[in-house]
Write a structure and sequence with these properties.
The chain is mainly beta. It has two helices and 26 strands. The protein has a five-stranded antiparallel β-sheet with strand order 1-3-26-25-24, with no helix packed on it.
């Protein structure tokens, strides 16, 4: 399954050289499968880029939308230097505005100011404490603790904001507290930690200390089932949103894992997805989804009603090449990891 998606994405990137018009068809045919293919970013010149330009705005569905997202700045560039990325995945915003980025193929975490100024980094490839094997997801708790989804080490690692290891838990397996590839992590206001157990197709809930609390999900397409779940977020009211990747939809649960609602089908229209990867919930309850292979961001109400969308394939201010991680800040900002362009893009929410 991993190999199938890898072949599909590589074929798609070659096709884009000749015509971006066939992207949706190619991705629909080859984009499904397992997540290991997401280890092959397109690399550009080894540089650190931070730029601020005139805004690129989104497109809304109708007059019911009360805000628009405008481009503010971006930073990054392919490479291994501080501030460079090789396949940026998860992104998270702390209460002080600091931005944490999972630099997956460099097996490290990088921390920046809200303007993209590099602060620090930690991690390298390995199995020891503080090391990672393809980290993918990240979340910041209300107390500033940083949780990292250490994908191929089948564990969660918890750090201080300075990158000092606090604790870790998990190993390969299917029992309570065990994982088979940790894809993403989210933290609720009460400190509860929700972990996306990718190949076990389930969500597990823990205390801040890593004590098992509960779980839900099995493989499938039913209401309480998941197929290759990729992203997870917790709303201010405690609702849990999960990106049901291979089913091309978003599922909403209570904090205890009771199914609430779902939306999305495969496609390119408003409210449809072409294999979504990331999700984040703003302070007002708005739900942002990284619609990766449609190369766009979609915004919804908490009930799943479409509000707006922005982005197309490309390298410009409002363009994306496989957006994957997304994080909504408390100050009306939205940060997106533009995976194929090896950059972080920041948008601000312009309210009337």
């Amino acid at each position: 399954m991993f190999q199938q998606r890898a072949e599909g994405i590589e074929l798609n990137r070659l096709t884009l050289v000749f015509s971006i018009l066939v992207v949706p068809l190619i991705l629909a045919l080859f984009g499904c499968g397992d997540s290991d293919s997401k280890q092959a970013p397109i690399l550009v010149a080894d540089e650190v880029l931070v730029s601020t330009v005139e805004p690129a705005q989104n497109v809304t569905s109708d007059s019911t939308s009360t805000s628009i997202e405008v481009f503010a700045t971006e930073w990054g560039g392919a490479g291994t230097l501080s501030g460079n990325f090789q396949g940026p995945e998860g992104v998270a915003v702390a209460s002080d505005g600091s931005v944490y980025v999972v630099d997956s193929l460099n097996h490290r975490i990088q921390k920046f100011t809200s303007a993209g100024v590099f602060i620090r980094q930690w991690g390298e490839e390995g199995i020891n404490d503080g090391e990672f094997s393809l980290p993918l997801g990240i979340a910041v708790a209300p107390d500033g603790s940083v949780y990292v989804a250490d994908f191929d080490n089948h564990r969660v690692q918890k750090f201080t904001p300075e990158g000092i290891l606090v604790r870790k838990w998990g190993s390969l397996g299917s029992g309570d507290g065990y994982f088979h590839q940790v894809r993403a992590v989210a933290v609720a206001l009460d400190g509860s930690v929700y972990v996306l157990d990718y190949s076990n197709n389930r969500v597990q809930r823990f205390s801040p200390e890593g004590e098992f609390v509960g779980k839900w999900g099995t493989e499938g397409s039913g209401d309480g089932q998941l197929q290759d779940p990729e992203g997870i977020a917790v709303a201010p009211d405690g609702s849990v949103y999960v990106v049901d990747y291979s089913n091309n939809r978003i599922k909403k649960f209570t904090s205890e894992g009771v199914f609430v609602s779902k939306w999305g089908t495969l496609g390119t229209g408003d409210g449809q997805f072409n294999y979504p990867l990331g999700v984040s919930v703003a302070s007002d309850g708005s739900v942002y989804v990284a619609d990766a292979f449609n190369h766009r961001i979609q915004k919804f109400t908490p009930e799943g009603e479409f509000i707006s969308q922005w982005g197309t394939y490309g390298t410009g201010d409002g363009n994306f090449h496989e957006p994957r991680g997304i994080a909504a800040g408390s100050d009306d900002t939205v940060y997106i990891s533009d995976y194929g362009n090896n950059r972080i893009k920041k948008f601000t929410v312009d309210r009337p």
